[in-house]
Amino acid sequence: MTGLDGGLALDIADDRTIAGRAADGDVEAFATLVRRYTPLLRAYARRILGGTASVDDIVQESFITAWQRLPELDDMGRVRGWLMRIVSRKAIDEVRARRPHVDVDGVEGLELPARPEDRPEQRAEHRAELTALADALGELPDAQRECWVLREIGGCTYDEIAEQLDQPASTVRGLLARARKHIIVRMEDWR
Q1: Which candidate among 14, 62, 82, 123 keeps its CA 20 to 30 Å from the CA of 36?
Q2: How many angstroms separate the CA atoms of 18 and 29, rounded?
Q3: 149: domain CATH number?
Q4: Total structural domains in the chain?
């Protein structure tokens, strides 16, 4: 096994360790953060942006900002939520520049790779289910949709969502409960 300076050790290290090293200027540690969180940040940005081509640009700009501002992060163990906040702000700025509301058309952010054993009709049904979910998400108020995406796609805790949205955790719980209820009702045919 390689020492703490080796890439393998960085890949298995916790966020606090990696972010701390990156904040001290360790390029390899920062590259580990980029590898670890690019898929999550791309999916998150895609949900906010509606699957546009600017997703990769937003994620790249976010990592540039993170590299520059990482030493300012108070709790290195919370780097995931901090990165998501950066992406969220940049993506929302992009949306505001294009139009006055978040567009959730398309299902690319929720797309799962097709399994080779799936028959064409199973793939079509899966795609239709994802389209129905995207439609249900599109009907939600922005705050509920953002909470749902952060929780269900981003895997954020209630406290992380509350911090990111600058809302009390109790408000986040209420928004998520209403979002989930709406989605359960709308997705009833897919159960």
Answers
A1: 123
A2: 5
A3: 1.10.10.10
A4: 2
